[in-house]
Amino acid sequence: MHAWPASEVPALPGKGRDLQIHDTATQGTITLAPGPVARIYVCGITPYDATHIGHAATYNAFDLVQRVWLDTKRQVHYVQNVTDVDDPLLERALRDNQDWTELAERETALFREDMTALRMLPPQHYIGAVEAIPGIVPLVERLRDAGAAYELEGDTYFSVEADPHFGGVSHLDAEAMRLLSAERGGDPDRPGKKNPLDPMLWMAALPGEPSWDGGSLGRGRPGWHIECVAIALDHLGMGFDIQGGGSDLAFPHHEMGASHAQALTGEFPMAKAYVHAGMVALHGEKMSKSKGNLVFVSALRRAGVDPAAIRLALLSHHYRADWEWTDAVLDEAVARLERWRAAVSRPDGIPADALVEEVREALANDLDAPAALAAVDRWVERQIATDGDDESAPGLVSRTVDALLGVAL
């Protein structure tokens, strides 16, 4: 599976700062100082309805991570998956009387278009669950053979007790885990499981549903968590720098994935930091496919909204915050974009060297994009109010906003 084209990231004078970021697992801020190549895995979409503003907010957060690392003169090895076979996708295809593969391909193509328009830097490896199946099957067999997995009526489950670190990502108690498991694709009430929280590794083939050769596991398809583990271990190995996604992935997805990987390798941790973006609401409720209260990036683009304004709307909220999408949020972003473009369109301006460092400092401080926007706003206000004589300043501001915030002026 291919990703989308990369926009050029301008080089800035000097060098950026190491990233301090909130780690869900340690429940505090840590400083990440990767080697020459920083490694990040971000969980991708299930392509049956893409791309809503909640998706865009999450991928915007991890795009900022990439930009901060690139500004430190590191390379970035970014991996993202596509869950192109799963119950929600199959259910939507059945509801709409569509072929599930055509639905997945169409929505993935739309996602690529939206990411390109929003200037999100693409992953080096963009991997679908289906294409990862040949690598998933051996991992499930290894877990089973090591006693970390078991069979139940043809299905294969992971035993959470196989990982002594289980629970160390989300820090939830057993009852909270059970409730979220039931809500987010698990089956805690299934009779015969060793532990209600044990997640599915391999689902035996069902009539009328797609299935693949699972070797000694029999025909079937993979569980959700082992998919990401197989892709991450294949392309990044253990101990990569960031495992990222929305806050609703902390449990069960990232918790279970960490345990799968740690049981497979005997190493800890799977990722140095577990980073989670907040949820976006609409009309007082979390934006979600199940509720249907979605604002689609493609619909905004078709309505003539500049993608740069959409991105500024996302940047106006801290990535870890839960917030609500409103017309006012977008209107403010459109007005800000107009002010910024007017300011940098002048032939000269007030010096901007200090602004570059302000934006760097804000983003290195747990991706504080609102503080970065405020710094640019202050420069723009002075630029409009003052006759400057620095011919290089407008261009430097444009490059800074493009390189670090992903907004083309």
* Strand ordering within the main sheet: 5-4-3-10-11
| CATH fold topology of the domain at 30-297 | Rossmann fold
Could you list the spans in which at least 5 consecutive residues all have pLDDT below 50?
none
Structural class: alpha/beta
General form = globular
The number of strands is 14
CATH architecture of the domain at 30-297: 3-Layer(aba) Sandwich
Helix percentage range: 40-55%
Radius of gyration: 22 Å
- Can you give the mean pLDDT? 96
Major sheet summary line: 5 strands, parallel
Describe the overall structure.
By secondary structure, the protein is α/β, with parallel strands linked by helices. The protein has a domain at 30-297: 3-Layer(aba) Sandwich (Rossmann fold), CATH 3.40.50. 43% of the residues lie in helices and 16% in strands. It is built from 13 helices and 14 strands. It has helices spanning 53-71, 87-95, 100-117, 129-145, 174-183, 224-235, 250-265, 297-302, 307-315, 327-344, 353-364, 369-385, 393-405, and strands at 19-23, 28-32, 37-42, 75-82, 125-128, 149-152, 155-158, 200-204, 220-222, 240-246, 271-277, 280-282, 285-286, 323-324. The protein has a five-stranded parallel sheet with strand order 5-4-3-10-11, with helices on both faces. The chain has a four-stranded antiparallel sheet with strand order 6-7-8-9. Helix 6 crosses helix 7, helix 11 runs antiparallel to helix 12 and helix 11 packs parallel to helix 13 (393-405). It is globular. The mean pLDDT is 96.
